[in-house]
Design brief:
3-stranded antiparallel β-sheet; alpha/beta; binds uridine-diphosphate-N-acetylglucosamine
């Protein structure tokens, strides 16, 4: 452990020495833990990130600056799953990669879900389905089912195809997430194929870039945004074992392709073979899924171009004028809504480190509780008093040489859980509605009839994306219920 003097000198040089303001009053154990925290914090990097973020923000809002304009995504830049022949070819390519054990999944579950108003990790949320399964359970069961489908379609023995699931948590979500998985026996997956890892944190700063203290003996920190994913794939999985990281685990398992997604979308096609096959056939390093944006005010980022590079303009950063612009056909000009489903090659994930320092963090101005340096009292502000710095997961797009975009159907792939019950949009009720509507759609596509008012919840273990329902053809379902097997489905006729 470095000495108090050397830490003090480093923080003085960085103009952040106020973090030692209460040093004389701290107990020995508080002193030790503060020194440890300050030692592990790369304060020079924090200063660099802050300066870059505020400079970029000032430039972006300067009308005289010669920034490249943000342009809508050209139609030619994306392909669509509505092209049935292409989609079935992509599916075959992707499923073959799954069957060879070349596909892994990264889940971003480090967010705190403050808009939802629940303190538990979002993936534990019960959206009120008949089965009361959580979002995590749905995702786990889709992985199980996909493994089975790949085994069946590619003649593999049962239990031999594995899609490892890397679950990114953060300080606020790790413990509860791991406990939830354990409590539910990893939803039937083998614990050795569910790998938890944790994103990093950054100090919360005053508007002038000074580090806030949370208590007299600790710095206030917050997760570094879902773009912390990349650095987290290089960090040790456990503090005691520095040799094992997500990247090393991917390499050890010979995983070549990765699907990354957000925890809050109940319709997410985890390790989607169509998307994986699309990325492979485009020879993309990185690819993104989009859906048509529903309205100018929908809280989604949009895929766009800037200076000839792909980019996402976040909903908090797009101007009202841009968001509302329509083309002559009446469609929104910026309509390629980002649903945070990414394809990566594992090689590309390794390369991110080379350009990460060039990326600019985003500033979120927030109410940050902190210790008043003059009085030592805890202050709970009522309006934004400082900033959290976040990297967004799509900030790598402009640095990607081979990028591809796939448009998918909203009704089949996107219904996010963002807001508290009763909000009327992107809330538990809309998630439940959209998932059950999808199950009805699966049955209808299989040639069955579902009577009006009948609600059937199809377990993902029965069907991943509508496949395997041939036995329902010609049947009329007149009872509501849960179908965890084809026999249980038959009982609902
Ligand atoms: C996100 C996208 C937005 C997209 C929308 C679609 C980002 C930055 N924005 O917005 O472009 O249109 O979803 O639903 O991705 N997370 C972490 N660590 C963090 C913060 C978040 O893992 O530090 C995870 C969350 O657990 C969640 C995901 O990232 O799974 C998205 O976070 P959220 O804050 O809900 O993003 P949105 O603002 O809704």
């Amino acid at each position: 452990m470095p000495s108090f003097e050397s830490i003090k000198a480093r923080y003085e040089a960085a103009d952040q020495v106020h973090v030692l303001q209460f040093w004389p009053q701290l107990s020995d154990s508080e002193k030790a833990s503060l020194l440890e925290q300050l030692d592990s914090l790369d304060i020079e990097r924090v200063n660099r990130i802050y300066r870059k973020a505020v400079t970029a923000e000032a430039e972006a809002s300067n009308p005289n600056a010669t920034n490249d304009p943000v342009e809508p995504l050209p139609k030619s830049a994306l392909e669509s799953v509505t092209h049935v022949e292409l989609a079935s070819n992509w599916r075959r390519i992707g499923l073959e990669a799954v069957s060879k054990g070349q596909v892994g999944v990264l889940l971003m579950a480090g967010g705190q879900g403050s808009r939802l108003g629940s303190s538990a990790p979002k993936g534990c949320y019960d959206i009120g389905l008949p089965s009361h399964k959580s979002l995590f359970q749905y995702q786990a069961e889709r992985i199980s089912r996909l493994q089975t489908v790949a085994e069946q379609e590619f003649g593999k023995n049962a239990g031999t195809v594995i899609v490892p699931w890397y679950v990114m948590t953060s300080g606020p979500t790790r413990r509860d997430t791991e406990a939830f998985f354990k409590e539910h026996n990893y939803f039937g997956l083998s614990p050795k194929n569910v790998i938890f890892f944790e994103q990093g944190t950054l100090p919360c700063l005053t508007m002038e870039g000074k580090v806030f203290l949370e208590t007299p003996g600790s710095v206030a920190v917050a997760p570094d945004g879902n773009g912390g994913l990349y650095a987290a794939t290089r960090s040790p999985l456990k503090s005691g074992d520095k040799s094992r990281t997500v990247l090393s685990d991917l390499a050890q398992r010979n995983i070549i392709y990765v699907h990354a997604y957000c925890v809050d979308n109940c319709l997410v096609r985890v390790a989607d073979p169509v998307f994986i096959g699309y990325g492979i056939s485009k020879q993309a390093d990185c690819a993104a899924k989009v859906v048509p944006k529903a309205s100018p005010t929908e809280s989604v980022g949009v895929l766009a171009c800037k200076g000839g590079r792909f980019n996402v303009v976040e909903y908090s950063e797009i101007s009202k004028e841009q968001a509302e612009r329509r083309d002559p056909a009446g469609e929104l000009v910026f309509r390629a809504a980002n649903i945070v489903n990414h394809f990566y090659t594992t090689n590309y994930l390794k390369l991110v480190q080379d350009f990460e320092e060039q990326m600019t963090f985003h500033i979120a101005r927030k109410k940050i509780p902190h210790v008043d340096l003059a009085t030592g009292q805890i202050v709970k502000p009522t309006k934004p008093n400082g900033m959290k710095l976040e990297m967004f997961v799509f900030d790598v797009f402009p640095y990607t040489e081979r990028f591809a975009v796939l448009e998918v159907q909203r009704s089949q792939e996107f219904s996010p859980l963002k807001n508290a019950p009763g909000t009327g949009s992107d809330d538990p009720e809309t998630s439940r509605r959209d998932l059950l509507a999808q199950h009805k759609h699966f049955l209808t596509m299989a040639g069955a009839t579902v009577k009006a008012g009948v609600e059937i919840e199809l377990s993902p273990l029965v069907s991943y994306a509508g496949e395997g329902l041939e036995s329902a053809k010609g049947k009329t379902f007149s009872k509501s219920g849960i179908a965890s097997s084809l026999e249980e489905l038959d009982a609902l006729v």
